[in-house]
Specification:
Helix content: under 10%
Strand order of the largest sheet: 1-2-3-4-5-6-7-8
Largest sheet: 8 strands, antiparallel, barrel
Strand content: over 45%
Number of strands: 8
Order of helices and strands: EEEHEEEEE
Shape: elongated
Structural class: mainly beta
Length: 166
Amino acid sequence: MQSLVAQKYITRSGVTSFKASVAAFEPIEATNKSTSAVITADGNVAALLLIKGFHFKVALMQEHFNENYMDSNQFPKATFKGKLSNFSIEKLSSVQEFPLSGILTMKGKATKINTIAKVTLQNNKLILTSDFSVTPKDFDIKIPSIVRKKIAKETKISIQYELVKK
């Protein structure tokens, strides 16, 4: 008999987006619709995405993001490993909020993330959404002075994962 802790929910089409825009300048935002994520019944969370999976409205911005800022050939992935505190799949009813903490790793640099995640069970799918902010400095991303005023000091990251039971 399989234990409840062994239950997990997965997706390979999670949506991760970010905004680093400053008013009065061209919006700096992109979306990645192919994030892989796993959540266990006891609240362990793991996610992985390919940096080149982020799509921008402006192709040149995407090229600069990958080549100049993220070095995506050298550092192709970003990962998150964390835990939803006080989470229990059995006790999940309507939309509930849980503290989510863990480590986000990009460009070979790890930073601690503490945020709130909204989780619900809907049509046998686990839906997790959350927002948090990071700074380019957290990951040793150098912003040239010529464009520094056009890029926000904090980048807002939003995640929306719809996971199915496996």
